[in-house]
Amino acid sequence: MATFQIPVLYTQIAVFLSELEKPFSNWTDRHVAQGFSWRPGSVSFRTFDDGDVVVTVLATDVAPGSTTAERVILVPFHVPPGGTVEVGSIFDTVQVDIVPGDYALTFEHGHTADGKMHCTLRFTPVDHEVRASIVRRDAELSPEGELLMVAEPA
Length: 154
What we know:
Blueprint lengths: L1 E7 L3 E6 L11 H6 L1 E4 L2 E5 L4 E9 L11 E9 L5 E4 L4 E4 L4 E11 L5 E9 L7 E4 L18
Parallel strand pairs: 5-10
Antiparallel strand pairs: 1-5, 2-4, 2-7, 3-4, 6-9, 6-11, 7-8, 9-10
């Protein structure tokens, strides 16, 4: 487990493989509406606002239980052998140790009692295909149709 604070810009927090030449993605209106932009090796999640976010990264085989998060999004994520994962924003990133493998990556985003933003990034190992889903949708998300699982590097 790792916990750290990241300054968020452009209302997005990214999880990506360090070796990507262009780790951040361009967002379309559909990405904004669904709350995330995904491509192999890189996913960015939409935060409620810019500013500091306390991030907790968990790599566990225990599936998420109940959460008080206001927004919960699930996506597939693959860490190749020798791959390094970074979490952060355009302003700053932190490397985290994730064992190579296939994961269900859950983004749980909310506010503390005093109004500060926080998120948990939960890497749960899987041995099956993971289908992206919006597990808990807040009023800012308005996806239409199938979730868009294609993004272009920024």
